[in-house]
Amino acid sequence: MAKIPSSAELLTVQRTPTVVHFEITSADSSQTFSIPVKAGTFVHEVATFVQVAFTAATGTPSLKIGDSSNLNGYLNTDDVVVDIIDTFTTSSFARGEAFAYGKYYAVDDSIKLTFVAATTGGTAGTVKGFVVLSNVKLDGIAE
User: Fold this and answer.
1) Model confidence pLDDT, tens digit, residues 55-108
2) Helices in the chain by DSSP H: which ranges?
3) What distance in Å separates the CA atoms of residue 29 and residue 66, rounded to the nearest whole number?
4) Strand partners, 137
5) What is the number of other CB atoms lying within 10 angstroms of the CB of residue 98?
């Protein structure tokens, strides 16, 4: 029969998750940004907020957020509407993102933010966001 540990044998580790903030301000070039993620990290949430809308004469500026296995795993270009001010977006299972409930990284990786500029006549905008993550190996939860 399995032994149930007494309360004195339980180890409770609590640590506040890390929040990484990012800001993208661009109009004339497509770019990919990376946020490193160490092995043993669980990404809880990725969210964006459009502070200043991006505009375009032709083409639509877009942003997608994912990782090396799925470039739109957290937010797809259809989810992040960068040409409308005050738009807040977070991963959602209802929208079908692969990592809507978060993702555990067993090996080092990076979160990729892929910004695609307008085809012509784009004006600079600003999208801010954050990534909430915890390194469970550092917290003593996983070996």
Assistant:
1) 876 777 888 999 999 999 999 887 778 888 888 888 766 667 889 889 999 999
2) none
3) 20
4) none
5) 16
